Amino acid sequence: MQLKDISVKLPHKPTATLRISALFPGTSSPEFADPLDITSLPPSSTLLVFLNGLILPRSSWNECISRFLRIRDKQRRCASSSNSSVSSSDTASGPKDESGTGNANKHGSIPKSNNTSNDGTHVHVPSEIKIPNILTYDRFGQGESDRDPSDPDPEIDNTPYGHSPLDVIADLHQLLLLISQYLSQDLSSLNLVFIANSIGCPLARLFNHHHSQVRVTGYLFLDSMMANSDFISVFPDPDSPEFDPEKDLRQGVSEEDLRWTRQKFREKFHPSVGNAERLDRRGLRTLLPWADRPKLTIPPLRDGEEEEEDKNLNGKEKQEQEQEQEQAGMREGTITRPKAIVIGHDWDVFADQNEKGPMSIPKAVINGYMNPAWQRYNEGLTRLAAVDGNDDKDVVPVKIAKDCGHFIQKDDPELVARELDYVLRGLGL
To answer: Cα-Cα-Cα-Cα dihedral of 408, 78, 190, 420, to 10°?
Structure first.
């Protein structure tokens, strides 16, 4: 299985081309035909959408996706083999569990229940493991895509500022509408999962807030940009009248270290600094002033929407299932509460990269100020999918990607593949 690279045009920006890579199992669209005949696979109502940061293009996700597909295909084949074995043993003698359902494996031991994830939360096990639809894309002005036609003409106006984060999510919404047509499914019927790095994480949050009718059920945040920061205020100003060396200086950090760091971060990371994409970040702090809100939501079910298998349950069985699914954030086989996993960089690796990189920021400065601030921000992100008043139960603590810097998908694609599979299993997808 492999992603196909194609060009698309969005209806509201018909003069520019977006480059996307996609895998749509079960599709009959010739653009997405695959030499391994994925058309023979069952279609899926799950769509994985990978959101780039400012630096790396869509190709940076390829290795993660390849490893994820191997994980998923192995699960699919094992499940198919297991189902065949169980079916053939239903009428034969053999080891059975205490309930007599015949769920023992060939060694006579009862398989461990897999309806609980490794963070202790309930997992709705899907009756059929499918290969999900997959989409990566380069935003306008990024990678292989054309520049945004709404941006000022660089030959006339060389301003570093162009389209806004809200423009980006409007483009994404139009792209998803187009993709849903390829899939012959309504966008509102798809279960989307966003996998995002850096600024892609706040873009995912903005999309949920401004397009709340779309069912984004899962989020994998990889070293999210601190959307509410100017990246300079993280470090105390040694020239401020309020500066207190005894309180504000961390071990191994001098006032000159702080001056140097603030200068370098102002030059490279302040929201007013332009970028090749011409994505204007200046208003991002106003759009997302908090790490832990607005909450991530999923639209309510439409009237009459339920899984076909639920129709055959009697009243007591249906009530028991509803109670179980309510605890898991699902109802009538449909997810009602999103799942968010937050992964941060390895503190020492990130600090080492800053010290050895072109900015030459001392490790003590990064470990003393930036890393703790980023950790607090990430902790806020973990509460985005929690039900108010129930944070402790719903929150999955921040995970640290060992030996990874800011670009986790590049540094450890296997980790990203495993965590993505974990998110999907946690959603029963």
So the answer is: -10
Alpha helices in 328-406 (DSSP H): 347-356, 363-365, 371-382, 391-394
Query: HEC profile for 250-286?
Result: CCCCCHHHHHHHHHHHHHHCCCCCCCCCCCCCCCHHH
Residue 129 and residue 192: Cα distance in Å, rounded?
16
pLDDT tens for 39-54 read 567 889 999 999 999 9
- Judge whether 372 lies within some domain: yes
User: Cα–Cα distances in Å, from 355 out to 56, 184, 252, 351, 364?
Assistant: 21, 51, 14, 6, 9
Q: Say if residues 292 and 381 touch (Cβ distance below 8 Å).
A: yes
Q: Write down the pTM of the prediction.
A: 0.85
Q: 408 is in which domain, residue-wise?
A: 4-83+113-169+199-230+274-303+337-427
| pLDDT tens digits, one per residue of 219-250 | 999 999 999 999 999 999 999 999 999 999 99
